[in-house]
Design goal:
Length: 443
Amino acid sequence: MFQMKNPWVAGTFWIVLYLLVTLSPLLILLIHPAPGGRGFWIEFSAALGYVGLAMMMLQFALTARFDAIAAPYGIDIVLQYHRYITQVAFALILIHPIILFFQDAEYLRLLNFFEAPWRARFAVISTISLILLVVTSLWREKLKLNYEVWRTSHGILAVATVGLGLAHAFGVNYYLALPWKAMLWILLALLAFGSLIYVRLIKPWLMMQKPYRVETVVPQRGDVYTLVLRPQGHEGIRFLPGQFAWLTLDRSPYRIQEHPFSFSSNGDRGDQVALTIKAVGDFTNTIKNVQPGTKAFLDGPHGAFTPDRFDCAGLVLIANGVGVTPMISIMITLAERGDHRPIRLIYANGSWDDVAFREDLEYLNKRLDSLTVTHVIKEPPEDWAGESGYVDKDLLARHIPDNREGWRYFLCGSPRFLDEAEKALHELKVPAKYIHMEHFNLV
């Protein structure tokens, strides 16, 4: 897939293309309207259904991790958009039959599953699948669904929703009777299911051609572990400092069990890569027990959270907890390159014993003359002389440059931390275009 060099042009292109595809049902009606006589609300209901179905079909492409699509925004933004726009599509698809029921009670007979025509049965099953998909996604943690079980069911429900929804549309055959209209929807279906085949079959096959082995697992403070990988039979992966990859351990990349983690090593060295992981869940709690020699596969690199995309006078890196991981990669890579631009790291933790990479930061502070490290400890020891409490407006005002222009601000951490830090930067008159954030919750 082609990739545009200018992120603003690329971002605008994909937004316009997305709008054109999702609104294509309405555009088709304007070009060649269907026979009249059904009234405004019936036609409006049908339009909502078609737009919602088009949105759902495009979700497959959004989640296929195509670099050209994700590059202008960052894949974390794309996946957040996927969550929100699915809820919009969900609302449109539910409103579609509700309007029909209010306009003509005869439509209620279609809910009689055993006597209704197949086109109506397809619609009912598709809607139930969509409801289950949304509910299990929004409340996965409350429902205590295992990640692998949820991901498998998520894919099955998505295919059922779109496939049966499309079968319903063709079964009604009111708007798709003309061959050219039917062909447009077939092409959209091929895009959707082709994206699924790519991410579930083709991409894992490509990953199998470039396997890795676990060299060692390095424990860090704060229940954090660094997984060091060596490429087997290939030159390894090159990445931009700050990016991440999806990791699959042992067996095969066709396994459902894959998780995104940030690189914490030099992006310019492909012969050894490191991913740093905090033990907070079923999978991450097992990292400390991974044995050297374990097979590993990487899908990446991904992400737009990197200073390599910008020209800037200096960097302000703001993180809490394991959010420091991409910052470590950035600092190590710039140190190896001999980059002398000023860097200010503001790193928040609950206690001094929780500070991951503490010794590494001391080493980097000595190696990079332009690096300033500010630790912010919520509950500091008695002899603590540094910053304490929270990263707020007053603290940032003391440590970010007086001249806000020309610097880039990179934030990574928990959702609440990011919200507070971003709000403080805005209050300090840091231009929004200079602020870049990486979110933890990609799944």
